[in-house]
Design goal:
about 450 residues, alpha+beta, Double Stranded RNA Binding Domain, 2 domains, two-stranded antiparallel ribbon, 15 helices, 18 strands, about 25% strand, zinc, zinc ion binding, metal-binding, zinc-finger
């Protein structure tokens, strides 16, 4: 099949326009995931190559080989979404190898590269497609097909992100080594190897796993890839690849710890101790500036509450002047909303208790939302990408736009920084632009 010049959808029938796999592989929406270790939830794999003389030098000189080399880096793989006919996942490629090797820092480590993948079955054969952005507007891909019990075919190339067309590609195949060649760590070259080995038993075991699990899993990938492979490279002779897929061990532990630190630092960027202290001082100075009026404001609030409890003596005109919480600076349209805000947010009053679990809430609506989300699954609103449940629909919509689409709708008018939540913007303004509050 000729791939060059064709639309990316030629790679799979799952890549329909605006489909979930299509948008996922082309990085049309983002998702920041922190991996969690467990049985078959993560898979660490690495490839070691034995190149013929001259092949390594030729590959290093090739810009195409450099771009697609991310697919051969040590990687930590996880499946993030499972559908009836396919699964979507991603992995972190360790460019240059793991950051730490045998307790020593690896100076060749060049950071992490996030790769997306789509995996599915076609005529009881495994298919996996990897994609990652390797340059602005350029996406590298690699499609691997389980041809038979012993062989896999692969096509690797580049995609123009704007036109979604495949610009160039190369095809090839790999052959699983026989036991004798694998033990001798030599290429299992069909031109010279006469050792006979039946791989049908291994294939039958994988098919049985496929039926038990109802689809491709990381366990299947481990059974499929583990071992020694030979790939022809033309007149220079074959190349040997040694694949190792593990669920535990020193390499797995280093990879998982490194990825967790990297992802958490992206979600919550680390702050220096100087910045933490500086923000604390700014916040303290702001609240100290309110100290002179705190007593007066408290007396006014107390008198307001007394009036609210006695509607006959209520003087609404005298209450309309103060609709701002003197503790946090939040403003409201009604004075009664100020009272409710202070009771719920600053007084931590939680009078609505869940009758199923010990949790309690300050508002009855929040309690109903909790019950739908945590105890009545059929009434909850579930995210189709990560299966997280919400008690109300608008919170599901907010979750999708802020987490999966990574939108930041709230922009600071002073410094143009953007935030996902309005509360985060208010906190930023309170800490970094205190003078605005003082001037107003």
């Amino acid at each position: 099949m000729e791939y060059s010049g064709r639309h990316v959808s030629i790679l799979s029938h799952h890549l329909e326009w605006d489909s979930l796999p299509f948008n996922w592989l082309l990085f049309r929406f983002q998702r920041q995931s922190v991996p969690v270790g467990g049985d078959w939830s993560l898979l660490f794999w690495r490839l070691k190559y034995d190149h013929p003389a001259g092949i390594r030098k030729a590959m290093q000189a090739s810009e195409f080989s450099r771009m697609v080399s991310v697919f051969s880096q040590p990687s930590l793989m996880m499946i993030e979404h499972r559908d009836r006919d396919f699964a979507l996942g991603s992995y972190w490629g360790f460019v240059g190898g793991l950051p730490e090797m045998n307790g020593l820092a690896n100076t060749d480590f060049g950071g992490f590269k996030r790769v997306r993948f789509l995996t599915y079955c076609e005529d009881s054969r495994a298919v996996i497609i990897y994609m990652t952005e390797v340059a602005p507007g350029v996406i590298a891909f690699s499609k691997i097909i389980e041809a038979d019990a012993r062989h896999v075919s692969n096509v690797t190339g580049l995609i123009d992100a704007d036109s979604e067309a495949i610009t160039m590609c190369v095809t090839g195949w790999k052959r699983r080594s026989c036991d004798q060649c694998a033990l001798a760590s030599i290429p299992c070259d069909p031109a010279v190897c006469n050792n006979e080995k039946d791989f049908d038993a291994d294939r039958a075991e994988r098919k049985a796993l496929l039926l038990r699990s109802g689809g491709l899993t990381l366990e299947y990938h481990r059974m499929w890839w583990n071992g020694s492979w030979t790939a022809p490279t033309g007149p220079m002779g074959p190349m040997t690849a040694f694949a190792s897929c593990t669920l535990k061990g020193p390499g797995f532990d280093v990879a998982l710890l490194s990825v967790m630190q990297h992802e958490v630092s992206n979600v919550h960027p680390p702050r220096s101790s100087y910045r933490i202290v500086n923000e604390g001082i700014n916040a303290m100075n702001y609240f100290l500036s309110l100290e002179d009026t705190e007593v007066e404001a408290s007396e006014k609030l107390a008198s307001s509450i007394d009036l609210l409890e006695d509607p006959i003596s209520l003087d609404w005109l005298s209450l309309l002047d103060d609709k701002t919480c003197e503790i946090c600076g939040s403003t409201f349209t009604r004075v009664i909303d100020v009272r409710r805000h202070k009771e719920n947010m600053h007084g931590k009053k939680r009078k609505y208790e869940c009758w199923i679990c010990p949790k309690s809430y300050s508002q009855n609506g929040h309690l109903r939302e909790h019950v739908r989300q945590a105890h009545v699954a059929q009434d909850a609103f579930s995210c189709t990408l990560c299966s997280k449940r919400f008690g109300v629909k608008h919170k599901l919509q907010r979750h999708f736009t802020t987490v999966h689409e990574n939108r930041r709708r709230f922009e600071c008018e002073v410094c143009s920084k953007k935030y996902k939540e309005k509360s985060s913007l208010k906190h930023h303004q309170l800490v970094h632009h205190v003078h605005l509050f003082e001037e107003s």
